[in-house]
Write a structure and sequence with these properties.
Layout (H helix, E strand, L loop, with lengths): L2 H16 L6 H7 L4 H7 L3 H26 L3 H23 L13 H24 L11 H17 L7 H14 L5
Amino acid sequence: MDRKQEILEAAEKMFLKYGLRKCTMHDIAKECGMRKSALYYYFDNRDEIFMTMIHNRFEKMSVEMKSAIEKANSTKDKLIAFMKKKWQIVHEYKPFMDLFDEKYMKLEDIVDEQDKMFSFDSECVEQIIREGIKNEEINVESVEPLVPMILGVTYGSIYAIVKMGAEWDYDKKIKEALKMIYKGIGKE
């Protein structure tokens, strides 16, 4: 592991321990066994360390998502894999996201990274749907309305679980949601 990565891992521990506002460069340096002045060789300040951590996490999430989708066979299984992995990632990284605090840094401060993740998610879902159309597994005239629908169900479910504390059997909810999307909710 290179020194920069060691610093990032130490910083994560310290950010989780003290919070964004209270964590200092001294705390990070002490955790990775180096002088505070040496940290400045790698990073200008703790905000740069934090933003690098955010960027690296989003990159890791993207790799994990692609891997989960590639392991699935059918279109429906790929959509299930996407939705489950998205929930697992958010659940796993929730303590990290709880660091955001109105007085120091807001989620809006990482809007570029959020935009990248949303674009990535949209591209994943669109690719799954296009592949499903090509393989004649799904029959839709247009991909465009389906992508935000699936993302809306995914993000809405995550919000209900993470922010509202809903206790759900997520596997069951994913399958129910996709069943509704596949079959529709109305009678014709």
